[in-house]
């Protein structure tokens, strides 16, 4: 399978620990050579080239800096190592330091700075070169204070927009991935399951794991059969797109109906509806999370804070456009 990542894009590699995110990042950088396949930068085959010859910037989970150097010299090091003019180095270091709010510590040695500041220096060293093919980040905000983590993530987005660099960001945190990236690469057990925009991953997960992993809570899934243009879950019949129903019948295998908690809507007074027997209602601030039973399955529904629940349960509708079918975990149609 071929995956094309566009120059100047912001990508996130997302998945649980051990799924292969860092390995894929290291294949891109040249620290690991793939057992099969090729890595192409444009028309150039770089599969066997070293990281230096690939012209890659990389920022690791824990800061890699020179403690005995000043902050300025740490930021300048990648440029001096390539013989850049000192005037250019000064302008470039000051520019990146301004972006990362490091101007006030440029003359200080790095050894006495906080972990947060050291990681900002590490980020700056990855970003200071203008000529890199890409900058790769391996969970770079893990050691950062939570409030500063949000600020730095926003700052990286601003830097990406200003500098038009290709950025690839590894994380297991869906919030980081969805707020940082133009496109998210969802991985599981060494495989890329889906590459898409945050909206596409939310609205049309290509795999049940993507639906489960993206969202809070994740997508509802129900084992089902298909009868005509309806998914049958126990004694519940849910209308689905006719073309998707036909594709599901042709695919065979284990069939599942999937729908987001946010996309199940309360039924109107005169609408045909499904009744959810409510087990629990959680007030999560700006919305209510309802957990209940439907057709012998647990189901989650996300309601507006003003939503109401009848004494006998919650009457809901599954909109046809939002009810998806999966065969052996893969989206059909």
Major sheet details: 6 strands, mixed
Low-confidence stretches: none
| CATH superfamily heading of the largest domain | P-loop containing nucleotide triphosphate hydrolases
CATH topology of the largest domain: Rossmann fold
Number of H- or I-type helical stretches: 10
GO molecular function: ABC-type ferric iron transporter activity; ATP binding; ATP hydrolysis activity
Keywords: ATP-binding, Cell membrane, Membrane, Nucleotide-binding, Transport
GO cellular component, one term: ATP-binding cassette (ABC) transporter complex, substrate-binding subunit-containing
InterPro entries: AAA+_ATPase, ABC_transporter-like_ATP-bd, ABC_transpr_FbpC, ABC_transpr_MalK/UgpC-like, Mo/tungstate-bd_C_term_dom, NA-bd_OB-fold, OB_MalK-like, P-loop_NTPase
Summarize the structure in words.
By secondary structure, the chain is α+β, with helices and mostly antiparallel strands. The chain has two domains: 199 residues, 3-Layer(aba) Sandwich (Rossmann fold); 116 residues, Beta Barrel (OB fold (Dihydrolipoamide Acetyltransferase, E2P)). The protein is 29% helix and 28% strand. The protein has ten helices and 20 strands. The strands form five sheets. The protein has a six-stranded mixed β-sheet with strand order 4-5-6-1-7-8, with helices on both faces. Strands 14-18-15-16-17 form a five-stranded antiparallel β-sheet, with no helix packed on it. Strands 9-13-19-20 form a four-stranded antiparallel β-sheet. The longest helix has 18 residues.
